[in-house]
């Protein structure tokens, strides 16, 4: 599993002498997709290592451990409709992308789809 969808973000640890925290965990949002980092040791203990919303903060470089049942595999579904993505670029980047697309004999959209497929660890081309 390279990506996982969060299905639970409730606290799972608490000190015996402290009240149970009612607020959801800061780094997880139910329904969002997160990158999974392979960690066989954690997996043997029922945990999954995730790059969560706190990535980039000190100490977050290796992701965080969460219970595996807080996630479900996120896999492509061939029955779902494709969705679009709009990005805003400055004139320079737009011009460079157009030139690269022309040189590759592709549309800018096809060039970007190829770029995404080459760089992401997707289970198969979508």
Detailed description of the structure:
- With 126 residues, the chain is of the alpha+beta class.
- The protein has two domains: 3-73, Roll (SH3 type barrels), CATH 2.30.30; 84-120.
- It has a five-stranded antiparallel β-sheet.
- The protein has helices at residues 40-44, 91-103, 108-119; strands spanning 3-6, 33-37, 47-51, 64-67, 71-73.
- The chain is built from three helices and five strands, in the order E-E-H-E-E-E-H-H.
- The model has no long low-confidence stretch (mean pLDDT 81).
CATH class of the largest domain: Mainly Beta
Radius of gyration: 19 Å
Q: What is the share of helical residues?
A: 10-25%
Any low-confidence stretches, pLDDT <50, length ≥5? none
What is the helix/strand order?
A: EEHEEEHH
| Spatial sequence of strands, sheet with the most strands | 4-3-2-1-5
List the helices and strands and how they pair.
Blueprint: E1 3-6, E2 33-37, H1 40-44, E3 47-51, E4 64-67, E5 71-73, H2 91-103, H3 108-119
Antiparallel strand pairs: 1-2, 1-5, 2-3, 3-4
Quick recap:
By secondary structure, the protein is of the alpha+beta class.
State the main characteristics:
126 residues; alpha+beta; SH3 type barrels; 2 domains; five-stranded antiparallel beta sheet; 3 helices; 5 strands; elongated
């Amino acid at each position: 599993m390279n990506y996982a969808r969060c299905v639970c973000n409730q606290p799972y640890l608490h000190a015996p002498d402290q009240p149970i925290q009612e607020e959801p965990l800061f780094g997880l949002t139910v329904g969002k997709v997160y990158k999974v980092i392979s960690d066989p040791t954690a997996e043997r203990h029922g945990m999954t290592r995730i790059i969560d919303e706190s990535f980039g903060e000190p100490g977050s470089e290796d992701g965080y451990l969460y219970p595996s049942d807080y996630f479900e595999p996120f896999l492509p579904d061939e029955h779902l409709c494709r969705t679009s993505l709009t990005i805003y670029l400055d004139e320079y980047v737009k011009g460079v992308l157009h030139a690269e697309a022309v040189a590759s004999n592709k549309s800018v959209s096809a060039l970007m789809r190829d770029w995404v497929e080459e760089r992401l660890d997707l289970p198969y081309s979508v």
